[in-house]
């Protein structure tokens, strides 16, 4: 076989290998370990208006597994005493919980809020950091107002171990 033919075969084999999906691609998506979860209240928004809320730092323990690089589930446990399911959809991780008595009313009653976190790799080269949003919404009609109260804050998740 000529050198030119060998080169063509080598290039063809190299191309075939480079486009083949990796068997462990789903392992690159799964996240497991301990993380610092930071919700930045300095940049909180309600109805597209910025205002300051209390920033919250938590320690999350995350376990997840993936059947494919797009089909992942898991669990988040917070040092603040709650845990919730975790799911990976459309390139983003999502988790949430109910916060009792989140929206206080003038009459002394309060309504729960639905808190949700959505996060993704903010910097693909850094597999230890994720960015996203922490958003909490109250129910429409709470406290006699037919308008949903929502607070959204920037969110950062950083691996500790």
From TrEMBL:
Q: Which domain of life, per UniProt?
A: Bacteria
Record keywords, A-Z: Signal
Give the signal peptide as a residue range, or say none if absent: 1-25
What is this protein's name? Secreted protein
Phylogenetic classification of the source organism: Bacteria, Bacillati, Actinomycetota, Actinomycetes, Mycobacteriales
């Amino acid at each position: 076989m000529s050198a030119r033919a060998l080169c063509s075969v080598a290039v063809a084999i190299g191309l075939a290998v480079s486009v083949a999906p990796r068997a462990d691609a789903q392992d690159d998506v799964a996240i497991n370990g301990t993380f610092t979860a930071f919700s930045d209240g300095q940049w909180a928004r309600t109805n597209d208006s910025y205002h300051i809320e209390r920033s919250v730092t938590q320690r999350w323990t995350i376990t997840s597994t993936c059947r494919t690089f797009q089909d992942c589930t898991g669990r988040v446990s917070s040092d603040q005493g709650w845990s919730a399911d975790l799911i990976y959809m459309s390139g983003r991780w999502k988790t949430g919980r109910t916060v009792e008595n989140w929206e206080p009313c003038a009459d002394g009653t309060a309504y729960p809020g639905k808190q949700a976190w959505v996060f993704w790799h903010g910097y693909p080269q850094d597999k230890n950091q994720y960015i996203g949003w922490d958003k909490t919404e109250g129910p429409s009609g709470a406290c006699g107002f037919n308008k949903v109260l929502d607070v959204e804050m920037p969110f950062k998740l950083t691996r500790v171990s």
